[in-house]
Amino acid sequence: MRTDEFDFTLPDRLIAQHPPERRGASRLLHVRGTELSDRLFSDLPSLMREHDVLVFNDTRVLKARLFGTKPTGGKVEILIERLLDEHHALAQVRASHLPRPGSTLLLADGLPIAVLGREGEFFRLRFGGGESVPALLERYGQMPLPPYITHAPGAEDDERYQTVFARQPGAVAAPTAGLHFDEAMLAALQARGVRAAYVTLHVGAGTFQPVRAEYIREHVMHSERYFIPQAAVDAIRNARARGGRVIAVGTTSLRALESSMKGSELRAGEGETRIFITPGYAFQVADRLLTNFHLPKSTLLMLVCAFGGMGQVLAAYRHAVEQEYRFFSYGDAMLIERLPERDTSAG
Question: Distances in Å between the alpha carbon of 246 and those of 121, 219, 236, 239, 274?
């Protein structure tokens, strides 16, 4: 398949620059094949039934963007991609001239960062001083808002570009479908007999990269770390045994679940995933997907097309543009019913 087949036209005014006034005050497009229903996110409990299980990604976004200088005075921007241990990280580095291995970068208070070497597009860094990298990021870093959000991050973003159930630090981008949920919504779902399960996938900066290859089979997927606890596996098995459905909250939860399949069985554990889900993929875990609207030509749009049917999802996107839904991280949501395997690429 050609990458251009996953393109669509989006007016800039529909790119949400700020979150809604309160969590959950957003719209919800319910996609059931060719049937589209315009709803509110507050309707979500009425679309669930007893014994369903919602699978959330509990990763926590790091304040991963840092600014500093070279010893010569040149400005440097650092975007942490992954924590390696308490004092080492992989990062993108932007500067007029990229640093060489063996050189040193300086944060605002003169804190040294040693450039140890390169790993592909990333630099391996060692942070000086006695504090851990997460503590230093909390002190010096900024929330790494996506490139399509044009304002500088502020206090609003520190709170709202983070889910209310974020527990495991390590992401450099939010699992945005989870941003709609507040404690009241979680309580309403629980009262309806819907269970919550939590997995972890630390979202990397590669999630915002469009596919640049002409054909999608030529794209090399970025790697992300995930963890599936036994409690999540048990919750999914119990839901299945009682006739409930599995709803993946976000493409990251869905990728973590599919990456943990061993044959026909979901297994607890952790690892690295480069899973690239495109139309024709046979899903094994989730029955429904709750997700935001994604970038044109992105791997996430391809995943959603695989789940709900390529023609159906692209038609839903055209409908969303016509109805002026808000797009991307701070935008509105979709609830997509999985199509039978034979129909996932149908138009």
Answer: 36, 29, 7, 7, 23
How large is the greatest C-alpha to C-alpha distance in the chain, in angstroms?
65
The residues spanned by each domain of the chain are 3-61+157-343, 65-140
Residue that has been written with the tokens 């919800």 in this structure:
28
Question: Which residue pairs, CB below 8 angstroms and at least 24 apart, start in 22-25?
Answer: 22/182, 23/160, 23/164, 23/179, 23/180, 23/181, 23/182, 23/185, 24/180, 24/181, 24/182, 24/184, 24/185
Domain spanning 65-140: CATH 2.40.10.240:
yes
Determine how many CB atoms are found less than 10 A away from the CB of residue 90. 18
- The CA distance from 19 to 41, in Å, is 14
- Note the CATH architecture for domain 3-61+157-343: 3-Layer(aba) Sandwich (3.40)
Whole-model pTM? Answer: 0.94
In which residue are the tokens 């029955």 written? 287
Looking at residues 150-162, what average pLDDT do you find? 96
Q: Mean pLDDT in the chain?
A: 94
Q: Alpha helix locations (H) across 242-309?
A: 251-259, 299-308
